[in-house]
Amino acid sequence: MNRDNRLARAVPDQAPAPKVSAAPRVDRTAQARIGDKLRSMYADLVQQPVPDRFTDLLSQLQESDDVADGAEKRA
User: Fold this and answer.
1) Model-level pTM?
2) I need a surface site. Which of 6, 24, 58, 61 has the fewest CB within 10 A?
């Protein structure tokens, strides 16, 4: 008898795993607790000011959107 056969017999056949729903659900109580924990973890971060670099980038994007909107209105 070779080693592979002995190992195969040592592990009993397992029943197939039960089917799990494709979309796992989290009850509202658990969702509320997760939300509370996340809010408490990130509260300090939310209070930080937005860096000037980001503000400048947002302004540039807004300007380019305004120019694009103006061009679409003329067309």
Assistant:
1) 0.39
2) 24
